[in-house]
Amino acid sequence: MKSVEDWYRHDRMPHIFCTGCGNGTVINCTLEAVMQMGWDIDNTIFISGIGCSSRSPGYITTDSLHTTHGRALAFATGVKLAKPEFDVVVFTGDGDLSAIGGNHFIHACRRNINMTVICMNNMIYGMTGGQGSPCTPAGAISTTTPYGATEPVFDLARLAEASGANYSARWTAYHVKELTKAIKVGMEIPGFSFIEAMTQCPTSYGRRNKLRTTTSMLEYMRDNAVLLNKAKRMEAEGRELSPGRFTVGEFVKRFRPALGVVKDEE
Amino acid sequence: MLQIMEGSHAVAEAVKLSRPQVVSAYPITPQTHIVERLAEIVADGELDADYICVESEFSALSSCLGASAAGSRVYSATTSQGLAFMAEVVFNVAGMRLPIVMTIANRSLGAPLSIWNDQQDSLFLRDSGWMQLYAEDAQEAMDLHFIAYKAAENHEVLLPAFVCFDGFILTHTFEPVDIPKQEEIDAYLPAFNPYQRLDAKDPISFGMYATPDYYQEFRYEINAAMTRAKKVLREAGAEFGEMFGRDYSGLVEEYRLDDADTAIVAMGSVCGTIKDAVDEMRDDGKKVGLLKLRSFRPFPYEDVRTALAGVSNVAVLEKNINIGSRMLGAVGLEVKDAVYKNGTPVYSYVGGLGGRDIRRKDVKMITEWAETGRNDCFFGLREEVL
Fold first, then answer.
1. Where residue B373 sits, what CATH number does that domain have?
2. What domain range is B361 assigned to?
3. Are residues B223 and B278 in the same domain?
4. Lower CB count within 10 Å: N or C terminus of chain A?
5. Considering the entire predicted model, what is its pTM?
6. Contact call for residues B146 and B17 (beta carbons, < 8 A)
């Protein structure tokens, strides 16, 4: 294997992602991390639920399992138990993972099952046309919140940490190098690794929220991302993050006993 | 006055006019336009309701159940996988005798994943205790919501109802619809008068354990209510006709069936195509007609038997498959039972699954198949990919 190109199913192109979508960037970062890990196409499986993010495995040349909405982690648990020697990666989205699949998410973290979960958080239900999700920021316009979302959002990276995952990090589709590195670290660590990739959806999110272009959405992620250490310093000084800003970085890295880890044969 | 409107928006207008107090839903294609429009309607203050976009279909119907048990008129909409995910609550709602109305934007069930139309999703909940009404066009989809609420909330019935209309074919197409005035609907459909509800001053319990001494009687009562629902639906449809000029007193509708030798039986939007095909076949001298089923639950077997009394062959066009049964389709099974005493041959012809178009030539083909006694089978099957 010399290039991420070898991991793509070129016969499935063109893909269904809209112009300016950030999902391709996240897939590329993932495959770059897979390459650096030296994983084998025949020994890697990509699993997903429903939504834009969940179309990703269909474009990758390994085995894949496209499952029902929110339940990718439950299916992945079965795959990992039956084939612990497989490297398992789950692609999911904010709606898939934290709304309809929230229950499976916290329990997969709690069991700390050995897999890497990459959540493309575009802050909206993109596939169905832009309804508000549990990650739609307060005040943001969606088709179900025509005058602005009012419900508080989930902090997915912290949720993973609190639920027991061995690794949790958040970056964005703007932070390509950091995101790739975080995914690779997640893959190296035994146990449940969660990487939240904030990603732009100009079609269903941006155009209703004065972020119509891809660049404006990327700039939004660049300008509103606050490094975790900086946020901690601010907190110590009694300063709060202004609304709309979010933290990025590594939230937890630990080595609790994990489920589904293949022990080295002596 | 007629207005050109998307089918989903017509349904949203019907929901608005029905004045539900709680609307709870989760987005799923092709239902989304209904609940998006309702979000706007509620946000703009056109409907005084609590609207919540919950975290799953399971939560959507569960919160509707709670709101209904608390004495509110409630509404939800879903389809396919969402309905399958709701299934546990679907049975609970009927068992608790809560008159919830839910729109089903009919779509096929996975796997493989398909977002396109057939009627497998609502039909698989045949035995859940929900009424199932099927609309041919946007106007009928709209009107059936008023009738569904009226019949469901009738104390002789107290059963929930699906109003089913075909995903994309009806949800996403624009048709002229006549929208009733609010005061007219208020006169037709008065405020919800719950038979019983959660009230701390007069406590009752919903959904408690029924031991073997009691459970069977609950199921008996649900079935008895569904049987009574036929009369209530007919009356509600007749009253609607008197007030609005569109008569829904029949649970079935005949089209050029009077002297027909062959009858085609179907539900939903495909009936429009079948009517065109029937006209063409009639022009060619063929005695053929359509029997459209508006209600599948309750199943109007008396009406079906009467309507099909004079025909020699029955072709049931099925947008579902009754896997493992001798009769290929779920509708055909019921029709065959209805005409059993007459001895009329009834065939299930399955097609249009997962959004495959059904064309006039397909309708003509299955008519010929029925005339020549061809047994149950699929039509439009692509043999080359099997």
1. 3.40.50.920
2. 252-385
3. no
4. C
5. 0.95
6. yes
